[in-house]
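Q: Hi! New to this. If I give you a protein sequence and the SMILES for phosphoenolpyruvate, can you show me the bound structure?
A: Yes, paste them in.
Q: Okay, here:
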Amino acid sequence: MTTHHTPPPTTPDAWRGRPAAQQPHWPDQELLREVTDGLSRAPALVFPEECDRLRARMAAVARGEAFLLQGGDCAETFAAVTADAINRKLRTLLQMAVVLTYGAAVPVVKVGRIAGQYAKPRSRPTETQGDITLPAYRGDAVNGLAFTAADRRPDPRRLRRMYEASAATLNLVRAFATGGYADLHQAHTWNRGFVSDSPAGRRYEELTDAIERSLRFMAACGVAPRELRAVEFFAGHEGLLLDYEAALTRTDPRTGLPYAGSGHLLWIGERTRDLDGAHIAYFSRIRNPIAVKLGPNATADQALAYSEKLNPTAEPGRLTFVVRMGAAAVRDRLPTLVEKVTAQAAPVAWVCDPMHGNTFEAPSGHKTRRFDDILSEVEGFFAVHRALGTHAGGLHVELTGDDVTECIGGDEVLVADLPRRYETACDPRLNHRQSLELAFLVAQMLRD
Ligand SMILES: O=C[C@H](O)[C@H](O)COP(=O)(O)O
Ligand SMILES: C=C(OP(=O)(O)O)C(=O)O
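A: Thanks. Here is the predicted structure of the protein with phosphoenolpyruvate bound:
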């Protein structure tokens, strides 16, 4: 392992002046300043203590003592900030977590792509329909999805709405996690309202029957641990919009160090991980646990450089690599990265995102992903770690609790079904049944 002595940059605005990829061209700079000034006075959404706790959990993931489950929408939308939609998403994640915990007897660290996932990097800056070209949709934090000039114009007031939507969502997440609903004794009710006659649904019912028997047995023995009554649930999103992230950065009064106050875990996307770019500069100074996405062209030298820049003091749990290489590439490209990072860098958690490298366009024009490709990438990721004696640390997926038809396969959804309920604002998500099915298959891989 190399020794690391470079302290993280501490000037609050170290990222400004560096090239910042994927930032909106805000037409009204005065309004942007007004909005970000307001945000910089608003209460942070998360506390440094919570971020530190998640960092400790991620350290356990890196050591192979826990497994990360991270999931949620590709793009959250303001319209979907409803109790029902959030509740279904959280229940889906809780169900997956229980399947993984029970199936593989491993603690599961739960992080949503939630309460801040409102900004999207895009492959192209514009979208053309017929003979009209408009700015691409960049997430509700920036512009509107409707294909009109008015909607697609970036509006900084949306940053304030992003903050409010995140706060409302996080409030529900906290109530859900600790207010009794997430009590393991309720595990069978988490399936309520979902189609339970699918194979995964039936397996879930069997599993919760077994859990209930165990809980009754434990109660009869006089054991009733408090840990079963609530869950620890963290919020994460891509830290893409640096004006927003900077406005919500707060100093921890305990230590004088800066934390992103917008979410517990932030990640740098595949399109913004330029080593000399603004995102790396911003992330190097916040103290939250952070992640970097690594696509098929990521090199081992880049991974080592991220470790040097983002985790110079080799702090446990600080840095996670989220690998999204695609089913076809992961077995070939990942081993060198894992080998070199393991030999030469501070410990990291390795997490598999089997979604972003497996997107293609169906003949109907819908962006989609095959469940089989998703599964194959997870299998490849596990196989690489098994062969190297390292830890497959987690799963990062795009999902919803709704019965959408966006990804093909699982025990349902054919290509012809795609238009039926294609509701994502950006990339295709696993629906509830597909999510549960994937959790059972991953639990099996963890057991193996
Ligand atoms: O979620 C990831 C990206 O924002 C998304 O895949 C980009 O989609 P695009 O290629 O349609 O721009
Ligand atoms: C944009 C995303 O992924 P990636 O950066 O890996 O393409 C995402 O996770 O929303």
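A: The domain at 29-447 is CATH 3.20.20.70 (TIM Barrel). Let me know if you'd like me to explain how to read the tokens.
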